[in-house]
User: Fold this.
Amino acid sequence: MYEEKSCTLGDGRTLAYFDLGDPSGPPVLHHHGAPSGKLETAFFNLGEAAAKAGVRLLAVDRPGIGGSTPRLGRTLLEWADDVEAFADRLGLGKFSVMGYSMGTPSALACLHGIPHRLNGVSIVSGSGPSDVPGLADGRSSDVARVLRFAQHRPRLTSAVLAFMKFGTRSPEKMIAASGKSMPEADQAVAARSGAAPRFAAFLADAMRNGTTGVRDDMRLAASPWGFTVADSGVPAFIWHGTVDRNVPVATARWLSERLPSAQLKLVEDGGHISVLDASAETVLEQLHQQALR
Assistant:
C-alpha cells in the first residue's frame, strides 16, 4: 500500500509521494508534520482511513525530505506553487488539502496562494505562527526548546535531528523518551503494539538523505510565515485536542477567528497525536462530502 512514487516538476525537481485510499475518490493532499515525512501516514493508518472515507490521499514529501529534491531558500508560498505543479502533473483539477501539526503552515500557504484549486481544507492539531503572542502558552518545554532552535540555531537543530535519527535504531527507547511529556491520550497511542517501529520509521525515512531538508522545513514552520491567514471562501475544518501540549489549543481558536466560516471541533482531553489517530476517517469523510458539493 505504501509504495513510494515520484513526480517530476517542470524545473526537474522531483516530489516523492504515496497514492493511498480510493483511486477514484476526490483527491486530498496530506501535509505531514515535522520532523516527519509522508511515511507518518503508516503510523496513523491513513491509507486505511482514506479507503473507508472514499478519498484518494496523496501524501507528499516536502522539498529535501524523504525522496523529494531540495529547493534551496524556498518559502512557504513557493510550496503552494509546487503543489499546483504537482496537481497539474497528476492531472488533478480541484482537490482538498489536509495539514497535520507543523504541516499546517504549508497547507495554509495553499489556501492563501491557490484557493481556486481547493475544494476544502482540514487542519488537525495545527501549529500557528511564532510571531503571534500567547499561542505557545502551555507548550511542552521540550517542544518549545526545539522550535526556538529551529528558528534561530540551524546548526544546533541539525545536531538535534542527527541525534534523533541515531535514536531511531532503538525505537522502543525513543518513543518512551518522547512520551514522557505527552498527555494520557497521546501516551496511549504511543504505547500500543507496533507504534514504536512505525514512529522510528517515519523519522528515519524523512532524514534518509540528511537532516537539512527537515531542518529547513521546521525553520519555515517555526518562523513568521510570510502571509496572512484570511478567509478565502474555501470551506475549512479545524480539529484540535484540548490538552495538546505540542500545540496548545489557543492556536485552534486563533485560527478559527481568522477563518470565521471554518468548523471548529475541539476534542475534549485530546492530545496532539490522538486526535488524528482517532478521527482520521471522519476528517477525510468531511473533505469527501465537501468535494461533492
Remarks:
- The radius of gyration is 17 Å.
- The longest helix spans residues 274-291.
- The mean pLDDT is 94.
- The chain has twelve helices and eight strands.
